[in-house]
Amino acid sequence: MVEIDDICEPEWADWYRLTPLQRLYASQELRETYLAMGGSLDPEPDTQSPFFHADTPRAVPADGRPGMRAVRRSGV
After folding, report:
1. Is the dihedral of CA 15, 19, 21, 25 positive or negative?
2. Can you give the pLDDT at residue 60?
3. How far apart, in whole angstroms, are the C-alpha atoms of residue 7 and residue 25?
C-alpha cells in the first residue's frame, strides 16, 4: 500500500490527513488571514469576455494594485 508521505510533500500530507470539517475550518482561517492582509475576493475582470465592459465601475484596492501582488513584493 502506498503511503501519503511517499507521494506528497509533508505540508500536503498533513492537509490530506484532516477531516473535511477540519479542512473547512482551516480554509476559513486562511480566508480571514488573506482578507486581513489586504486581499480581495473580487475577481479580476476578464477582458476577453464578450460581457466585459470597460466602463463598468469596479472596486480599486487602496494601493492601486491587484490583491496578491502587493503581498508578494518582498521577493519571496
Report:
1. negative
2. 64
3. 25
